[in-house]
């Protein structure tokens, strides 16, 4: 079923919408949550909470991209659960992945940075568009879906070492790209 049809089911408040959403994106949502949480029961809870979150937010929202919308909800819920579960603990793939980007993307919470966020988003999208498809897949799997090097290697047919080298080079290029645009000093 097409995304627009699924969204229409949500607007009609038809419970079949959740079934169709699950059929189409359930595996991806589960993988995303599991990559962050590494716990079957927490993963299942986040998947179910994702469906509830989509149900509660469509309507009034009408997302342009249903997959992005669903993944954003799933990721936010998984991160929230992860933070709750770990509260001072460390050493998960998610923490390691964030630490790899820590020196490049710095989070500041002021009005000026919020205004610049849209330009940064556009620049990051441009950077990602400039990558070869395999490099873009590797980068997004690691830093959006929080996949381990092992999982990325299995998905792409690369060795774990090759994945590691690719990510190091991409981060280096990202740092250079952002420095040229005055995001980094």
Summarize the structure.
This protein is mostly helical and 185 residues long. The chain has helices at 3-11, 16-37, 40-57, 66-86, 93-101, 111-130, 133-143, 149-156, 160-180.
Q: For the record, what is the CATH homologous superfamily label of the largest domain? A: Winged helix-like DNA-binding domain superfamily/Winged helix DNA-binding domain
**What top-tier CATH class of the largest domain fits best?**
Mainly Alpha
Show unreliable segments.
none
How can the largest sheet be summarized? none
The average pLDDT is 85
Structural class: mainly alpha
Helix content: over 70%
Distance between the termini: 48 Å
Beta fraction:
under 5%
From the alpha carbons, calculate the radius of gyration and give it in angstroms.
Answer: 18 Å
Tell me the number of helical segments per DSSP (H or I, 4 or more residues long).
Answer: 9
Q: How many E-type strands?
A: 0
Give me the oligomer status.
single chain
Order of helices and strands: HHHHHHHHH
What does this structure look like?
The structure is a single chain. The chain folds into two domains: 3-86, Rna Polymerase Sigma Factor, Chain: A; 94-180, Winged helix-like DNA-binding domain superfamily/Winged helix DNA-binding domain (Arc Repressor Mutant, subunit A, Orthogonal Bundle), CATH 1.10.10. The protein is 75% helix and 0% strand. The protein is built from nine helices and no strands. The chain has helices at residues 3-11, 16-37, 40-57, 66-86, 93-101, 111-130, 133-143, 149-156, 160-180.
Summary tags:
Rna Polymerase Sigma Factor, Chain: A; 75% helix; 185 residues; mainly alpha; globular
């Amino acid at each position: 079923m097409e995304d627009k049809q699924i969204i229409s089911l949500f607007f009609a408040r038809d419970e079949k919408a959740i079934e169709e959403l699950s059929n189409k994106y359930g595996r991806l949502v589960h993988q995303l949550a599991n990559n962050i949480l590494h716990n079957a029961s927490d993963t299942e809870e986040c998947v179910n909470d994702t469906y509830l979150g989509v149900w509660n937010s469509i309507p009034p929202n009408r997302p342009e991209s249903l997959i992005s919308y669903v993944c954003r909800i799933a990721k936010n819920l998984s991160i929230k659960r992860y933070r709750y579960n770990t509260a001072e603990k460390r050493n998960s793939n998610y923490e390691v992945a964030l630490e790899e980007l820590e020196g490049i993307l710095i989070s500041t919470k002021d009005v000026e940075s919020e205004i610049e966020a849209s330009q940064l988003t556009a620049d990051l999208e441009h950077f990602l568009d400039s990558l070869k498809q395999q490099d873009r897949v590797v980068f997004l799997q690691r830093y959006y879906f929080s996949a381990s090097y092992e999982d990325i290697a299995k998905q792409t047919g690369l060795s774990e070492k090759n994945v590691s080298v690719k990510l190091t080079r991409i981060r280096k290029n990202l740092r250079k790209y952002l420095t040229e645009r005055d995001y980094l000093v």
